[in-house]
Amino acid sequence: MRFIPLERLINLHEGYRQAFKIDGVDIILLHEDGQTYAFSRTCPHQHYALDYAKVSDGLILCSAHGFEFDLKRSGALVKPAGFPCPALKTYDLVYDADRIGLML
User: Fold this and answer.
1) Rounded distance, CA 91 to CA 88, Å?
2) 3-state class (DSSP) for residue 38
3) How many CB atoms lie within 10 A of CB 70?
4) 3-state secondary structure of 14
5) Are strands 25-32 and 16-22 parallel, antiparallel or unpaired?
6) What pTM value is reported for the model?
7) Is 10 helix (H, G, I), strand (E, B) or coil?
8) What is the pLDDT of residue 53?
9) Cis, bond preceding 84 (omega within 30 deg of 0)
10) What is the pLDDT of residues 61-89, one digit of tens each?
């Protein structure tokens, strides 16, 4: 595994959102409501882009079909309840000195 730096901590601010492509995988790094998250750039339902999806209190809402995922609970599907959809892929963040990134 190797540390992949994404951003300097000083650059994270409320509303920060940046897309990255790492080893062919599209990821979004987001700082919202005082929390920082890394997750797949596409919704697992029908692969709609989440670049501009609304995030509030750790919940991300896919604007294509209204699916909602909990970023605080490993991307678990919240709405629609019981629908057979996999969780949104989330990534654990790692801090190294003044940088935030992923271990891949």
Assistant:
1) 10
2) strand
3) 18
4) coil
5) antiparallel
6) 0.91
7) helix
8) 93
9) no
10) 998 889 999 999 999 999 998 888 999 99
Tell me, what's the pLDDT at 104? 83
Q: Are 31 and 16 in contact (CB under 8 A)?
A: yes
Looking at residue 8, its amino acid is: R
Residue 31: count other Cβ atoms within 10 Å of its Cβ: 20
Q: What percentage of the chain reaches a pLDDT higher than 70?
A: 100
Beta strands in the chain (DSSP E): 3-8, 16-22, 25-32, 35-40, 54-56, 59-61, 68-70, 76-79, 90-91, 94-96, 99-103
Handedness of CA 28, 31, 51, 75 (dihedral sign): positive
93, 36 Cβ separation under 8 angstroms: yes
Exposure on the CB side of residue 62, measured as CA atoms within 13 A: 28
Q: Which two tokens stand for residue 101?
A: 């990134």
Q: What is the pLDDT of residue 32?
A: 92
Bridge partners of residue 76, in order along the sequence: 70
Using the Cα atoms of residue 16, residue 52, residue 80 and residue 89 in order, give the sign of their dihedral: negative
